[in-house]
Design goal:
The protein is α+β, with helices and mostly antiparallel strands and 677 residues long. The chain folds into four domains: 152 residues, Vaccinia Virus protein VP39 (Rossmann fold, 3-Layer(aba) Sandwich); 173 residues, Distorted Sandwich (Hnrnp arginine n-methyltransferase1); 127 residues, 3-Layer(aba) Sandwich (Rossmann fold), CATH 3.40.50; 135 residues, Distorted Sandwich (Hnrnp arginine n-methyltransferase1), CATH 2.70.160.11. Helices cover 21% and strands 30% of the residues. Strands 6, 9, 10, 11, 14, 15 and 16 form a seven-stranded antiparallel beta sheet that branches. The longest helix has 20 residues. The chain is globular, with a radius of gyration of 28 Å. The two termini are 55 Å apart.
């Protein structure tokens, strides 16, 4: 039967979509990146001076101007002609206002087009070609925002023969690493249910090349125990943005490296470095701390992280062994291969064959390998599963049905995702399990004929493919409402998990606050109009709580953790009604500010086993929080507020009975509010 999806999108109009696009165009952390701003400023001024010293006027084109910052830098430094293009109309209008706020409207001509749509000539967008082009069109992989295509087109149509491009060049670097931790984001590990029972990974999954989607990650947040550098870093490609021959559509790099350790080559990590000027005196690096010139004092960035690629197979190497590293780029897709062959094959762009990589996030794949989480489930299941036990599993999980079956239960699984159905079939074949029955349709439409015997255990990780925030998994509890006819009486039924806790802690983020904070002024220019545009759009479209993998973003606790609500999931949701509560928590830290609240969910499996989507260690005010690395937490940003002698006040409302059959947190079922008072 065809899968029926019950969750619908909120009814939103075109204006909402427009505002949402404006909110997503903020990239506020880029404008908070002082090193980036300073080095673009210095390189652009140097280019203008170079043109003037050679007797030429300086004609500058700022591609993708955004806030108008780079165009204003050029105008203020004395560029004779300044063009700025911006294709997104609301941002272009805002840039026009920002330029006017800074009294530079007579010095900058704004073109509301993509650079690829600009025409040069009499009575056209530009009356002459630019001899200086400045652009910041890079992402984590350097080329993902179309940088090479943009520069190729600009060189052909918009630039003079002697045009100076800012930045001048970029070099991409690669390094082979051993990291079981990073590997777990790509391929699940074997799960040890008991000393005698394990769940093996099917060959189709184990050998799957994965998807072409890069794992972009804050590599500088890895612990020393998480990885070993197998090789030194090596430059893979160098692009000189003023030389069109270096800006290829596709390319292959082959390098012979020497292994520094006896190790397994799990992944290839990559980053890039910009040469901002032609003298190569101004450099901007996105390297992780161990390869960065500033080490652990490197500037923080969220718009430029590092990229992780997984070779099609793992390679074990000895110390001082010769290794071939082949990196291939086809358009926007990058892939890598590590080999000991002198003539290694060219890697293929990954295409998922097992379904897991196409449908699950990297962090979700990592959660499938989380040993501590599975140990707790195995312990809880071991207490309740007997020879005649019937389990009913709900959700997109594949490990729990296998665990329950291995422990001796007859298992029925309500599958709401086609990919999970195929994946579970692969796992059952690999592990020779024949006590799992998959019900491939929505739980709402199950008949009393399925299963044959009423379930005495209702089981869920819980996890659903629609999960964004941990409490989205309360869908498990709401599904219970539609499954009563398949379950034993409440007195006989065991529900795992049996309880839910929504918890929070006041925090001081080291850097993450920048993604929502207004920039006010940058490089001496007033950007308050840009702030207003973005903040207005965010207030219309953004949820007050947003998901973030907080292990990548250091923060210190400024309060004790506190419980907002607790739900006994052995009870039925229709009997719960509306939950409304509030409270306050004192600050207990030497930190000066509280700029956010971190929220997470705990699921109580039984009286002695609880899994958390939050801190991996006990929270201590004044100390950095260690977060679970395979889940996202919720973040509620506050305006930076001086603490003493104030308290963190909170209120919460959860309308449980609003829509029992169609639980979707995005439908305003949960309302949060936090404030420092």
């Amino acid at each position: 039967m065809e899968l029926t999806r019950m969750n619908g999108d909120p009814d939103v109009g075109e204006d909402f979509g427009l505002q949402q696009e404006i909110a997503r165009s903020a990239f506020a952390d880029m404008l908070h990146d002082h090193e980036r701003n300073n080095k673009y400023h210095a390189a652009l001024c140097e280019a203008i001076d170079e043109m003037h010293s050679s007797g030429n006027i300086a004609v500058v084109l700022d591609i993708g101007t955004g806030s108008g910052l780079l165009a204003m830098i050029a105008a203020k430094h004395g560029a004779d002609v300044v063009y700025a293009c911006e294709a997104f109309e609301p941002v272009a209008k805002c840039a026009e206002q920002v330029i006017e706020d800074n009294k530079l409207q007579d010095s900058i001509q704004l073109i509301p087009k993509r650079s690829t749509e600009i025409h040069v000539g009499f009575d056209q967008d530009m009356t002459e070609r630019a001899n200086i082009i400045v652009a910041e069109v890079f992402d984590t992989e350097l080329i993902g925002e179309g940088a090479l295509e943009i520069f190729r087109d600009a060189l052909r149509r918009l630039a003079t023969w002697d045009c100076i491009i800012v930045p001048h060049a970029a070099t991409m670097y690669a390094q082979v690493v051993e990291s079981p931790f990073l590997r777990s984001f790509h391929i699940p590990n074997v799960i040890q249910v008991t000393p005698d029972i394990k769940i093996k990974v099917p060959g189709l999954v184990r050998t799957c090349p994965g998807s072409p989607a890069v794992l972009d990650i804050q590599l500088s947040q890895l612990q020393c125990s998480d990885f070993v550098c197998v090789t030194d870093r090596v430059p893979v490609w160098r692009y000189v943005f003023s030389e069109i021959d270096t800006l290829k559509e596709s390319e292959i790099s082959r390098d012979c490296l020497i292994s520094r350790k006896k190790a397994t080559c799990h992944a290839v990590v990559m980053w890039w470095e910009l040469e901002m000027d032609r003298k190569n005196s101004i450099r901007l690096s996105t390297a992780p701390y161990w390869a960065h010139p500033s080490g652990k004092e490197q500037p923080w960035r969220d718009h430029w992280m590092q990229a992780v690629y997984f070779p099609p197979y793992e390679l074990k190497v000895s110390v001082d062994e010769k290794i071939s590293l082949v990196v291939r780029r086809e358009g926007y897709n990058i892939c890598a291969l590590v080999s000991i062959s002198k003539n290694p094959k060219i890697p293929e762009v990954p295409a998922c064959k097992c379904g897991l990589h196409m449908n699950a996030s990297h962090s979700r794949i990592g959660a499938l390998s989380d040993r501590s989480r599975h140990e707790k489930f195995a312990a809880a299941l071991g207490k309740v599963i007997k020879e005649e036990t019937v389990c009913l599993c709900i959700g997109s999980d594949i490990m729990l049905p296998l665990m329950a079956s291995k422990l001796g239960a007859q298992v029925y699984v309500v599958i709401e995702d086609n990919y999970a159905y195929v994946l579970l079939e692969e796992y059952t074949r690999q592990n020779r399990v024949n006590t799992i029955t998959v019900i491939k349709k929505d739980a709402l439409y199950l008949s009393e004929k399925e299963p044959k015997k009423k379930a005495s255990v209702l089981l869920g990780e819980p996890h659903f493919s629609t999960t964004i925030l941990p409490w989205d998994n309360l869908k498990f509890w709401f599904r219970k409402h539609s499954l009563q006819h398949l379950l034993c009486t409440p007195s006989e039924l065991v529900t795992i998990p049996q309880g839910f806790s929504l918890k929070a802690v006041g925090v001081n983020f080291k850097d993450l606050w920048k993604i929502k904070a207004p920039v006010h002024a940058v490089e001496g220019f007033d950007l308050s109009s840009f702030d207003k545009l973005i903040q207005n759009a965010q207030s219309i479209t953004d949820d007050p709580v947003e998901p973030q993998p907080l292990w990548e973003y250091p923060c210190k606790a400024v309060t004790q953790e506190f419980v907002i609500i607790q739900i006994d999931m052995r009870n039925d949701p229709e009997a719960t009604g509306t939950i409304s509560c509030d409270g306050e928590v004192p600050f207990e830290s030497n930190e000066d500010e509280c700029n956010g609240v971190a929220l997470w969910a705990d699921f109580v499996l039984d009286d002695s086993n609880t899994i958390t989507f939050g801190p991996a260690k006990a929270i201590v005010p004044g100390h950095e929080i260690v977060w679970d690395r395979f889940s996202r937490q919720g973040v509620y940003f506050l305006n930076c507020t001086k603490l003493k002698p104030k308290v963190l006040k909170w209120s919460f409302k959860f309308d449980v009975s609003k829509d029992l059959t169609n639980f979707d947190v995005s439908r305003d079922l949960m309302n949060f509010n936090f404030d420092v008072q």
